[in-house]
Each structure stands twice: as structure tokens, then as C-alpha cells.
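Handout, section 4.2: multi-component inputs.
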Amino acid sequence: MFVRLSIAVAALSVLTGAALAQGAKLTDPQIAHIAYTAGVIDINAAKQAETKASNKDVKAFAKDMARDHEAVNKQALDLVKKLKVTPEDNDTSKALSKQAADKLAELGKLKGAAYDKAYIDNEVAYHKTVNTALETQLIPSASNPELKSLLQTGLKIFQGHQQHAEHVAAGMK
Amino acid sequence: MLPGRYLATLALLALGALAVPAHAATLRIVMENMAISPAEASAKVGDTIEWVNKDVLAHTATAKNGDFDVTIAPKQTIRSVLIKAGTVDYYCRYHPNMKAVLTIAP
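Output:
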């Protein structure tokens, strides 16, 4: 399970990296779509965890993730509406969604403490991957200053999530 | 009519002066970008804390010892009056890496 998890994480990094590196420069509608998709993925994972998790810290963390990512995605929707930008589906979004669906199915088969541990470890890895993508690809590529600023705010929030997840994970060992 | 209104205004002013003792201060504590600032603050019993949440997320100011637990909705400000002295470590329940200390003198 550990091996599989790290392979999945590596696959996500490679996919994200490759998709981002190949497709020339990302456009703002694509960046908006990727950021929104990344949020939806974590909300879905949180919803699953709210019903499946048994550890109370893990359950509370999942609630926090759903609340925060819904708030950030609402900001993103308000912004694209204001800017009259239509988020555009792209290879990175597709790769992220596919990988997340597989992960959700994999986690769905686990129970009890094994589920809790797998969920929180994946949250650490996932936030790390997303934060790296934000820092090195999405923020530098964004042209609209308001979009850039929202992504920067998102990065601060998700770095907080990563630390929170690491803290919960450390408490479970 | 004019003198009446004037009197009423004076009465209100007097009442306001009574309700807010001269020594009570207001202290602003800001939550922005997942951080509390200032991280260390000092106040006195009777002072008002103005909790300002500039983030798009909800935050809380939750005392570790249970003395207070304030929830601040996104982009909102909440005022609370300090009623108990002590050095209080507090944090945000939703984002436990947001931590700060409030020292409340009697």
C-alpha cells in the first residue's frame, strides 16, 4: 500500500509536470480550470472522509478541507464571472481528475485506521503536489493580476492545509 | 423642540461615557493569509478585542484553556470584551497552525 501510494504520487507529479511542461504556456482560462478542479478533487476526498474516517482529528481535518476549498472555489467562480472568463478543460485537469477518481476508489476499499492513515498521507502528498504546481507553474503563468492574486492567496491557504495534514499524520504514528 | 433634542443628545453622550470606562481600550487582532497578527498582544480586563478576519475562510480564536471561543466569518469583524485575566494561548480550530498569545492584565 505504501508503494502503491508513492507510485500514485509520483505518477501525479509526472503527469502534472509533463502536461504543464509540454503544452506551451497555460492560458488564464486553463489555469482557472486546473485550480478549480484541484479544489473539487479535495472536496470529494473530504466528503468521503467525513463518512469513512474514524479518528476524530482526521474527521475534523476533512470538515476543514471541505469548508475551505468550497470557500476558495466560490471565490474562483465569482472571479471568472467578473472577468467574463470561461474556464477551459485541458490535459492537466483531465489527468488530475482521472488520478483523483482512481485514488478515491482505492481509498473507498479501505476501512478504519488503515483508511484514516491512507487518507491523511494522501492529503499531505496531494497538497504538496498542488502547492508545487501553483508555485512553479500556475502563478508564474497567470496573466490577469486578480487571478494571480487569488492563486497566491490559495497557495498560502493550501500551505496551511499541508502543515495541518502533516500535523495530523504525525499524531497518528 | 430644539432644546429637547439637544438634551436627549447630551443624555446619550453621558450614557455612552458611563458605558465605556475611560481606561478601556480597543485592540485590533487581524487574521490574514492564515496568520494571526500580532502573534503576541497585551490587554486589560475590560478592553475590547476587535477580531478582524481578512481571509475568504472562516477562522476562530479559541483559547486553549477554554476562556473564549470566537468564530469570525470570512471578511467579518467581531468585537468581544475581555472579562478574565491571564496569559492565554489561542489558535484557530479550523487551521491549528494559526497560533497566538494574548496576555490579559487584571
